[in-house]
Predict the structure.
Amino acid sequence: MAESLYRPVGIGKLLLPGNLFLAPLAGFTDRAFRGVAAEWGADLTYTEMISCEAVFRDNAKTLPMMERDPREERYAIQLFTGTVEAAEKSLERVLSFQPSLIDLNCGCPVPKIIKSGAGSALMKTPDRIASLVKVLSVGHDTPVTVKIRTGWDAWSLNYREAAEKAVEAGAAAVTIHGRTRSQGYGGKADWQPLRELVEALPVPVFGSGDLFTPDDARRMLEETGCAGIMFARGAIGNPFIFRNTRHLLETGEEAPPQSLTIKMETALSQYISSLSYLSEQRASKEIRKHLCAYTKGIPGSSALRNDLVHGETRSEIEKLIRDFLANSL
């Protein structure tokens, strides 16, 4: 019998039971959503990007972003910085949250991140990536990994140099998103660099980019031989994708779609979970974008999305969700 594409993977000292991860996504992978993703089978979840500078300055908004959800057995904190000094100063505080691993973002294409020398700006200077990995690895045995892009633009595809220097500096794994910085999230992700890094590196290599369905994940694993995959936009409003993908990888068959009731109850559970650390007003505002994704394509959902703009309390949000569910059924 052929080996299942769903399989355990080791990252340094960290042993994961499976290879389906929730990627870091600014504005989306907060504690409540990570908890829901873990419930639905994500083997590893990543925080939103965390600024090293904000960490060592004890920024009141940033520190809570690193807190683990009770449902997360394993989670990663993803950091961004353009300076070794900031990485060094933030490390002790980051480790105090006891993440399963620390990931260095070398791929974010957002202009304000690039302007600080962080994110995909680091693809211009692979030696700096190596320096950051080294300083983040000092004094502890928590695995340090990197997430890169294929390059700054089509004329500087230096993903192999960046990845090799990161591994030489101590990176325990590499994730590559198959686009350049200049592509942003447009165009089509190129999986060939992923396949090349799988063959070239002595550590696990994970893939990201254009993964929206369980079958996308299957194809990436089959075509590239990568150790695991990261769902990003494909998981928003669809944390069920982890369990459904595992089902496909283990059985070869598609899982039945989740019912509207399960979708809405999951969304409501996510919202209620966020109330444990956010005010009603803030939690109600944050859940709007998730509910837009949960209800995408469902007849009559546009009215719900319009009504959500005015919901600011738990009772209002719960009523909107339950009324929508009752009317839809």
User: Anything to note?
Assistant: The mean pLDDT is 94. Residues 260-274 form the longest helix (15 residues). Residues 150 and 159 are 5 Å apart (CA to CA).
